[in-house]
Design a protein that fits this description.
Strand 5 and strand 6 form a beta hairpin. The longest helix is centred in the last third of the chain and has 41 residues. Helix content is 38%, strand content 33%.
């Protein structure tokens, strides 16, 4: 029983150490395994796209357009706003380009998956938007969760250790009292035969106490 409880304690302690080591090392995948999800080309201005679903946390929008020579450079050429389907009232990322200053590029989005849509405002001759996701990307473990998890495991280990120590002390006291009773009995009014039998019992139990790691009596 004592060995089993000691093993459980060691297991809990090992889990707490492993938890800290693993959660502190989780990060995004670094591969470039990009797969196209959807693309939009030459839609009207003020256009809202159909919703699309992103299953991975790393994704991007590759964009390019051909400027309209009649639109001054200081005027908006291509504006794209990214919305989450669950919060359609507020955009969280955007592409905002004017004139001919930059006609192609890539918007990277991290740690967001789910269903999204775009609102496109354009004053260009043509444009193309390609939405891609990184198939090897994994979610980052939120850093704020690491400390509570470690604290929880520490509390469980500490509580178990205290309970185990208390039970061991109770077990030892009871065991010691019983052996003291037998030893005193052999020193008093028992017959020589009875004293011999009780002495043998006391010796056996004393050996058990040594074998289980209890304090020598």
């Amino acid at each position: 029983m004592i060995r089993m409880r000691s093993s459980i304690f060691v297991l809990l302690l090992t889990l707490s150490i492993s938890l800290f080591a693993v959660t502190s090392g989780i990060a995004f995948a670094s591969s470039d395994n990009w797969s196209e999800v959807v693309r939009f080309t030459d839609e009207g201005t003020g256009f809202q796209t159909e919703p699309f679903t992103i299953d991975h946390v790393d994704w991007r929008i590759r964009w390019e357009y051909e400027p309209d020579p009649e639109v001054p450079d200081e005027h908006p050429a291509l504006h794209v706003y990214v919305y989450a389907q669950e919060a359609p009232g507020t955009w969280f990322e955007s592409i905002r380009k004017n004139g001919t200053e930059e006609t192609s590029g890539t918007l990277y989005i991290h740690d967001r998956n789910g269903t999204f849509f775009l609102i496109i405002i354009r004053a260009v001759q043509s444009y193309t938007l390609i939405v891609e996701q990184n198939l090897d990307s994994i979610p980052e473990f939120p850093s704020w969760k690491i400390l509570p998890l470690i604290l929880l495991v520490t509390i469980v280990v500490t509580a178990y250790r205290k309970k185990f120590t208390k039970h061991s002390q109770i077990h030892y006291r009871g065991f010691h009292s019983f052996l003291s009773f037998l030893r005193n009995l052999t020193n008093k009014r028992a017959s020589s035969c009875a004293r011999a039998k009780l002495l043998r019992i006391w010796i056996c139990l004393k050996g058990i106490s040594w074998g289980t790691g209890l304090k020598s009596i």
